[in-house]
Every structure is written in structure tokens, then in C-alpha cells.
Amino acid sequence: MTTKLLSIPDFSGLPCPVYLRHDEFGADTHSDAHRHAWGQLNFVKHGVMEIEIVGQRFISPPQYAVWIPPHAEHSCYNRQAIVYRSVYLSLEHSTHMPSEPCTLVISDILKAILNDFADRDVKVPQSDADIRLAQVIVDQLCVAPVQTRYLPYAQSPGLVSILQALQADPGNNRPLVEWANKVHVSERTLARQCLRELGMSFGDWRQRLRFLTAIEALEGRRSVQEIGFDMGYSSASAFISMFQRLAGCSPEQYRRQAKRA
Question: Which residue of 22, 28, 82, 83 lies most exposed, with the fewest beta carbons within 10 A?
Fold first, then answer.
């Protein structure tokens, strides 16, 4: 299938220190690799965006955003339709942000402001009130918790093979000890590898993978219960609890919001 190329704003300099961009992109869309002299925050209200930044792959689900430092080459791909929010920050504002690409945890305040600007189609804050809101965006980004990636990758061959197997079957409930036996290491060694290479436990990584997979599955017509069982949960309530904790809404609420969007 041929993917559709997304257009990129064509200006040599930012129109203002905090420039807002909002759009909706269809499934199988992408942008070519490009770079610019300002920092950029990419956030999706619905869906999952895949971004490659200087050879590193990042995933941006709801609740999280990806920070791209100035002059870093990047491109994106959307497997499914997304509702997109972006903030371009001047060099001056970007100096207070991480110098390397990373994932940022987005606060409810920041989400509300970005959605408000999008609802009013404000790209360049001009009124006194909007200029103050733009400053709140900068303040919120400067204190946003940083993660290297939402779904990190491993280096050791054994752990790589385990993560690949989980990506092929996110609902696999095999316990850590069985995975350890499969790659011929102790359970304790494998647990340490997860913390060292992924920055999180095996269980947390598998839960994030299931969350991302569930977001894509909710674009279809299968019931929440069916999706939950596919993700390895023994009951719909357990799946709903996980999803609500990570997305801030229930699977059905997410599905309705996505359809409205």
C-alpha cells in the first residue's frame, strides 16, 4: 500500500516564539525526513504516532508527547488516523528543554490548553490571554517528566528475542521465569536486564505494549471484552482498569471520542 505524504509548514523562521499546529492525519500517512531551527513537541489526542529522530524510533500515544530538539532530523509515520497537536518552540525557549530527543509525560493542564487552541484554531497567540496561555505551555513543558522512550528497545540478544515475541503476541501471559528459561538465564538476571536496558520492569513494558496495541484495536469493531482477552486479560474489568489508568478514559470513551474526532 502506498502511503500519503504529509505537508510540512513552509516557513524559514517561526512566526512567533510559541507556534501551535493542529491537524488530523489519515491512516498510512507519513512525512519525509526534515529538520528545522526550532524545537518541536509532537502530541496525539487520539491514535499513535511513530516518529524517527536521528535514527531513533519513538512512539507517541495519548498522555505522552515526543520532544524533537532544534536541527534534529526527523520523520513520522501513522499506521492509523490520528488527531495531531504540535508546539514549535523558538531557540530561546528550546534551551530550557532536553538537548536529546525524548518522551515527555503531558499534564492535564497542557492537554487542555493545546486542545483549546486547536478548538479555536489559534496558531499564533495574539491576545493577552492567549499569550499568557502560551507561556503556561512553556512552563509546563519545562517541568514535564522525561522518559527516554515510551516503549524502549533492548540490546542483549536474549531480551531482544523476548520483546519481539511479545510484539507478535501481546496477549502472551508467560511469566518472567519461563521467558528466562527460554533464553537460558536466571529470572533474576533477566529482571536486571529489563531494568538496565529498558529502564522499567518486564511487566511494565508488556503493559505498555498492550496499551498501544489496544489503541489500534479500538479503531475496529471488536468489542472491548474481545480486545481485552486478546491482550491477555482474564476479564474485561481488568483490561478497562489498565486502559483507563494509562489513557485517562475508558476504552469505550476513547472509541467514542475517536469517532467524533
Answer: 28
